[in-house]
């Protein structure tokens, strides 16, 4: 099921690269950490040979500071749980949703 939405996203990112500086263009929200990990693995497998596509996993139970550092690099894809997304919106000054083109719920 994950590949049904992940493959078109990776294809779009490959054929429509950044117009300016790197930014987060895809946000995937999942209700549990386990599902986020699974989705992140699928995106990593699909984009393993596309070195210009990056993704970041942001869930509870993982170190907040290391996630902030990963988000500062402006990954193309962010996979997050709703609670951790809210944490980053309120507490990570460099994290923005301004350039999101695709939202998966």
Q: Which regions contain 5 or more consecutive residues with pLDDT less than 50?
A: none
The overall pLDDT, averaged over residues, is 92
Radius of gyration: 13 Å
Helix count equals 4
**Biggest pleated sheet:** 4 strands, parallel
- Strand fraction: 5-15%
Distance between the termini: 13 Å
* Secondary-structure element order, N to C: HEHEHEHE
Shape: globular
Please give the share of residues in helix.
Answer: 40-55%
Structural class, by secondary structure, is alpha/beta
Strand order of the largest sheet: 2-3-1-4
The total strand number stands at 4
Protein name: Helicase ATP-binding domain-containing protein
Keywords: ATP-binding, Helicase, Hydrolase, Nucleotide-binding
GO molecular function: ATP binding; hydrolase activity; nucleic acid binding; RNA helicase activity
Domain Helicase ATP-binding: 1-105
Fold topology:
Blueprint (H helix, E strand, L loop, with lengths): L1 H14 L10 E4 L3 H14 L8 E4 L5 H9 L4 E4 L1 H10 L10 E3 L1
Parallel strand pairs: 1-3, 1-4, 2-3
Helix pairs in contact: 1-2
Please describe what this structure looks like.
With 105 residues, this protein is of the alpha/beta class. It has a domain at 31-75 and 82-91. It has four helices and four strands, in the order αβαβαβαβ. The chain has a four-stranded parallel β-sheet, with helices on both faces. Helix 3 (64-72) links the parallel strand 2 (55-58) and strand 3 (77-80). Helix 1 (2-15) crosses helix 2 (33-46). The chain is globular and about 35 Å long. The two termini are 13 Å apart. This is Helicase ATP-binding domain-containing protein. Residues 1-105 form the Helicase ATP-binding domain. Keywords: ATP-binding, Helicase, Hydrolase, Nucleotide-binding.
